[in-house]
Amino acid sequence: MRHVFLINPHAGKQDQTARIRALADRLAAAHNLDCRCLLTDRPGGAEVLSRALAETGEPVRIYACGGDGTVHEAANGIAGFPNAAMTVIPAGTGNDFLKNFGPDAAKFSDPEHLWDGPEFPLDLIDCNGRLCLTIACSGIDARIADTVHRYGNVPGLSGRGSYLLSVAVNFLFKPIGRRWRVELDGEVLEDDFALVSMCNGRYYGGGSMPVPEARMDDGVLETILVKNVPKRTFARLFPAYSAGEYWKFPHIARMVTSRQVVITASPGEADIVTCLDGESLRSREVRLVLAEKRVNFFGPKGCSPNATAGFDRKPRKRRYSTAFLLL
Ligand SMILES: Nc1ncnc2c1ncn2[C@@H]1O[C@H](COP(=O)(O)OP(=O)(O)OP(=O)(O)O)[C@@H](O)[C@H]1O
Fold first, then answer.
1. pTM to 2 decimals?
2. Which of 106, 125, 144 marks a domain boundary?
3. How far apart are CA 241 and CA 107, in angstroms?
4. In a domain? residue 12
5. Which ipTM value was assigned to this complex?
6. In this structure, which residue's CA is closest to atom 4 in ligand 1?
7. What are the counts of helices (DSSP H) followed by strands (DSSP E) for the chain?
8. Where is the DAGKc domain (predicted)?
9. Alpha-carbon 18 to chain mean position
10. Residue 254: which of 171, 292, 169, 197 has the closest Cα?
11. pLDDT-derived band of residue 8, with 50, 70 and 90 as boundaries?
């Protein structure tokens, strides 16, 4: 078994390559393991490297060392390969994916807890052929995340500064709603939407948790649809949305468990911006389906990706509330 540490030197606030190399060396020496470190050399590099490792057919354990973007790339690289499994050593800015593991998230920082940890499959979201581990969101939240990334390269602008600038550009100076056709299995909706987020995991955007009952291995994807509302209303309701209290505003938000969701931009409408684990995608049509148990994951003994999952507040097969339909 090979243990490969894929390090993104551009993740997080400072390069953690030296720290991770030291962890890998210590692990190899302590347990006589075949450990090696590979550095990503460009965006998308973790996907290329992890796929190449999986394609050898040899058993391999991959440690994605970075943030959610690096985890996303590694998952896309090894998905569907039975000989490959992945885990995460957090070295990014947000590392929202690991929040799904609750208090055990802290153990992922030390590979001593990981190298012989149990392996289990996770579901993924297939979005136009790209795979997403946690949340695939389209709409205002995705546009803000997309511009945060772009302003992140502006010299002299801090992380907080780029976030505030992005909110200003997308929220204050542009309409939040977009005219979309949304197909939920057979049901078709044509409306102005603020956002449509499909959840496999529970966290994004630095800790927002739109659907607490989303579990990463239950073969069910929860999708929350939020209609366009006046900006003041959106700002007032956003804290409840982020806390998973979508059920508090049934006249605006609806949660469904459709197996397939297709979002199509209406004629004249801009391309849809979709954010997959923090990585952006632009398209006229977004097709979201379950990729069941597609990636092998390993973690500390006893850990669960559903550690912080909440109970079902609403029946899973719930259709539109009457209030929503009347809007
Ligand atoms: N060698 C490289 N040069 C430039 N960019 C890279 C390189 N390797 C990876 N990347 C890109 O760095 C980006 C950021 O990585 P990542 O998301 O892992 O860290 P982060 O943004 O700090 O953390 P988080 O997403 O958890 O907030 C990814 O989009 C990835 O494609």
1. 0.91
2. 125
3. 29
4. yes
5. 0.97
6. 42
7. 8, 15
8. 1-131
9. 27
10. 197
11. very high
